[in-house]
TrEMBL record, chains A, B:
SUPFAM superfamilies: Nicotinate/Quinolinate PRTase C-terminal domain-like, Nicotinate/Quinolinate PRTase N-terminal domain-like. This is Nicotinate phosphoribosyltransferase. Belongs to the NAPRTase family. It comes from Sphingomonas dokdonensis. One of its GO terms (cellular component) is cytosol. The modification Phosphohistidine is found at residue 242. The lineage of its organism: Bacteria, Pseudomonadati, Pseudomonadota, Alphaproteobacteria, Sphingomonadales.
Length: 435, 435
């Protein structure tokens, strides 16, 4: 006798929409930390965030149905923080700190809604942008990326048989577990999930996070995904992102203000946060320039997150700088999070082991690695895109990022040239951006 | 919101027994073909079948709870052929033949019940045997093996976490699919599932069968498991087994009768069946002896199933014999089913391709290959046993099998010596029996 759950079956066969984002906490923790700072210190800044598909060869609008994308974006706009989520944000401890989020901020969050979006199709690509107050628009970054990425996965798998799907996920599970077993051999590993934005899908990210929790125990310190951290009783992990110096820089009226802007926003950050949240993201306008001009107090921060240089090269550069500043690197923390995978995690771990504290933020290659998994033999349809959602305009001005890798530079070309001059950042050779 | 199916959840957490064998059709097709012959021609023969664990190093009774084994055996005895199953046996076409099973036989089947069993624990092993009319006892072979094997799998996995189990089955699926992809490269492959007796479990066998159906299309010709053939609309595959010549030999009163017995039972078979069911299993008392003394009509049968010699060596021996008898091997069929796996299937296929028709019966290494799949890293607990259930006594006499591999010989030592003398079968060197 086969028992059929009629309600579930009927639901599965007739639902109107399978929402990709079902919670406003289904975002990265650093967005909430930055949001609190933005809300309290920069409530009047108007910004535009834009979706940028660096993988131009994939014509996203040919793969993903525009109406389906609108439905998902519209659904995300209906979401509000639930009472349970707000209580958790208020009562939970983050990085060992109680009451990380103040009561006024939480009160404001209770009415938060994602703002309107602007969507057009141009030459096979989506032009998706969000314009409005920084404290509203910034929250679109992660859901917008998660929605587009998951719609692409769904499109790739839309007409597959149940069996092909079963084999595909079986292989992906086996593939991830091989990585977990290699990670188990690194006794002092400290690793967290940074894979929300580029994930294959929400449920798959959840599986990956649970796999790391089971496989690595306390060496898996948590996830950047706030909702998964809440549901799986994990630490929410994250600090800050390029948007802080990018907006601060765009707001600068003179070249002198521009040169000071990246440090000015960090000083705001350290007034609001402390301890392990004092992590410098140094590459926005070139790490070499950042270190050269940094005030001494930056060397006393807990650590750095090199984000656009090969990890060993980037780490060595920062260690040398700490030593010049009289700091002991063994007390300092390096967080590696740029396109890491099992090989580069192992190599970086062994290279720096004993010389500096390390933590790995594992993103795309954790939550969206289906290489060799598709029974059709074609990996292209499920290969992750280099898709980002970046601040592009601030109060009418172009927002600029230089990065340590010119392939990741964004902004108006004239402004890029000016920023290069002000920061003294040469135009290095570009490396291909894989993820 | 999470919908909980309360009935399913309550059932899953409180059932008394999870039956391993749930249908009398959950057996190999050759048992039914043989059963019809036994029922019509040898209704009065009394036999004993005994479970034999050739893997003596595994103390089964230390792993499997005796009370649990009794519960499963008792449950199998409560089963009857259902009306749906009997209608299917009557109305289905087997090997292109309608009404393979006669109405009198089906009428008798309607009341069929597995007979009593005798179970003791001796030195860490189960002494499990079945004594009674051949036409009842013979039907214990497959369910007894399936029950013991699945109880062992369950014991191995009993205290594993949900996650370890998920990874284990994901790896096993990925592993099987790698094999399927290699088989897809063999355009003229003819393959069927022979894995019921040694399966990891019923649900896993079903997955494997569905995988082959999906992955190989018409090159997967069917399954020996009658219930799976019925449920998945596949051909039921099988012909006859060693028990026919073994019982016929044991019934022989003189040495001359003994020498004739293996051919006598084949002549009965060809009176009852035809076409692709005319497959010779030649190794019971040594293939060389069998071929040397075989009447000419045996060469006109459709094919052979070499079962205890390396496949290429065994196939070449039979091809030479066909050629001596003036038969064209290209019109003949060789069925390879002894411990085959992907490597030996590929090698055998390429060796004989174009020279003879071939079919592969893939058993243990299809439905019970978990090598490298257990996250604990220990493969031993899930490694398949060389477990058989053989006729051991016939009307009070010892039943004997010599085989082409002396490691597979069974029977009273004095009788084995007499059989060797009568059939002129030398005591070859034994090869290890892996599965």
């Amino acid at each position: 006798m086969t028992l059929t759950d009629l309600a579930t079956r009927t639901y599965n066969h007739s639902f109107r929409l399978d929402p990709i984002v079902r919670s406003l906490l289904d975002t990265d923790f650093y967005k909430l930390l930055m949001l609190q700072l933005i809300h309290s210190r920069h409530p009047d800044v108007e910004v535009t965030f834009s979706l940028i598909n660096r993988t131009r060869t994939v014509r996203l609008a040919d793969t993903i149905d525009e109406a389906g994308l609108r439905e998902q974006l519209d659904h995300a706009r209906t979401l509000r923080f639930t009472k349970q989520e707000l209580i958790w944000l208020a009562g939970n401890t983050f990085y060992g700190v109680e009451r990380m989020f103040g009561p006024k901020f939480l009160e404001w969050l209770a009415d938060f809604q994602l703002p309107a979006y602007d969507l057009r199709v141009v030459d096979g690509q989506f032009e998706l942008s969000f314009t409005g107050p920084w404290a509203a628009v910034t929250m679109w970054e992660i859901p917008a990326l998660a929605i587009v990425n998951e719609l692409r996965s769904r499109a790739a798998l839309h007409h597959r048989g149940r069996f092909a799907l079963d084999v595909l996920y079986a292989r992906a599970k086996a593939r991830l577990w091989e990585k977990v077993e290699r990670l188990q051999a690194l006794p002092d590993l400290v690793l967290s999930d940074f894979g929300t934005r580029r994930r294959h899908g929400f449920l798959w990210q959840r599986w990956c996070v649970e796999a790391l929790k089971e496989g690595l125990g306390p060496r898996f310190i948590g996830t950047s995904n706030v909702r998964l951290a809440m549901d799986a009783d994990l630490e929410a992990i994250g600090t800050n992102a390029h948007e802080l110096p990018m907006v601060a820089a765009a707001l600068a009226d003179t070249d002198a203000d521009l040169a000071r802007a990246p440090y000015q926003i960090l000083s705001e950050w350290q007034e609001d946060y402390s301890g392990n949240l004092l992590i410098v993201l140094s590459d926005t306008y070139g790490t070499a320039a950042f270190l050269r001009d940094a005030p001494d107090w930056v060397a006393r921060w807990t650590g750095f997150r090199p984000d656009s240089m090969p990890p060993i090269e980037g780490g060595e550069q920062i260690i040398r700088w700490w030593q010049e500043k009289g700091e002991d690197p063994r007390t300092k923390l390096l967080i590696f999070s740029d396109g890491m995978d099992i090989d580069s995690i192992e190599a970086t771990y062994h290279h720096f082991h004993g010389r500096v504290r390390m933590s790995f933020g594992w993103g795309t290659n954790l939550t969206n690695d289906f290489r060799g998994c598709d029974p059709s033999g074609d990996d292209a349809a499920l290969a992750p895109l280099s898709l980002v959602c970046k601040v592009t305009r601030v109060n009418g001005r172009s927002a600029v990022k230089l990065s340590d890798n010119p392939a990741k530079a964004t902004g108006d070309p004239h402004e890029i040239a000016r920023y290069r001059r002000v920061f003294g950042t040469p135009d290095q050779s570009a490396r291909p951006v894989r993820v």
